[in-house]
Design a protein that fits this description.
Layout lengths: L11 H29 L22 H16 L8 H10 L1 H13 L6
Length: about 120
Amino acid sequence: MIDDERPGAEAGPLSAGTDACQGNAAIRQQLSRLRTAAARCVPLDCGCRDPWRCTCTEPPLSEVVVDGWRDSAVHILSAGLLPRLPIEVLRALYRRGGRDRVLAEMLHDAIGGEAT
Ligand SMILES: [Zn+2]
């Protein structure tokens, strides 16, 4: 049977749920420690307290980076998969016009407008 071939199938669903709960508890504990540590930090110039999550000082997308995202997306599409591009990249591709705009519109439509 296929169900018996799953890893940990003999342990039963209750045990798998327990492992998932313990994993979730560990993640909650890590996030709590991260928030506590971030609260101890002096705020950055941008106002963010957590330097790990701050994206305020990231440089703007360069043309080379956008080209890389476009080429990667085309490659993934050629493999029959759907690439998920960040919304900033989709916007940059759209602003370029031409074939890049067509690609950006197609990807936007394919993901139902739920870009990240
Ligand atoms: Zn920031």
